[in-house]
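Assess this one:

_____
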Amino acid sequence: MTDRIELRGVRAFGRHGVYDFERAEGQEFVADIVLHLDLAPAGRSDDVGDTVHYGELAEKVTAIIAGDPVDLIETLAGRIADAALGYDLVERVVVTVHKPQAPITVPFGDVAVVVDRSAHHPAVVALGSNLGDRRASLASAVAAIARLDGVALVAVSPVIESAALTLEGVDPNLPTYLNQVVTLTTSRTPLGLLAALQQIELDHGRIRDRRWGDRTLDLDIVSFDGLERQDEKLTLPHPGAASRSFVLVPWSIADPDAVLPGHGRVADLAEPMRHEVRVEGGR
């Protein structure tokens, strides 16, 4: 990620320090914040909703500096980083906290602590294929997801087989699907992860000519850090996840303690549906 917003020289009075006189007298602290995020949507829309309002962020930073005292500026920098990562669009933040009046007994120009933090959002992705070499497509897609910048795989479910689901319902005359679920953590935003997954689909020959039609590869974000959203770009959690055995069964195997936001434990949801799919290896 090369796009960034830089907010430098934010000054506020605080009472942070190990010594009693630092708490009693206080001093000025200075913070620099560098946000790493995708600014292309804001560039296209010219809408502040597609970026981070740096004026609001500056107010949050000054409130943190002026707020509850801490002993270490490492702690102060961490609190500022957490506030910056609270913006959904931010994938990474670098915070520098300067303490120009630090109690140092020799001449010095500045002392600062720098923390570099990335977001770690848990997410669940469902994979499916009913055209071509289905098994190879799934294996290749899992490998491609694992190679994405800012993504770390946590668990990979076994492969299951399921009947083709269309807008009209299950169609036994269509090629069956092989399905799989991966759980992961990511520093990407939901839309950033979606864009990467759609590119993987294209790389595997996905053609979007008919809704719910046959496909070489289908990748869906099922859940993203408990987020609930609904717009023309992405709905979270996935609106059909709670009723789809080919999502719930492999997900419950990959993560027995998983919860589908708004619906409950995935294992409980999957239990009455297990007969609808065949889990390879007999699990």
In short: Helices lie at 20-25, 40-45, 54-66, 73-85, 134-147, 190-203, 245-254, 266-270. Residues 121-279 form a domain with the Alpha-Beta Plaits fold (CATH 3.30.70.560).
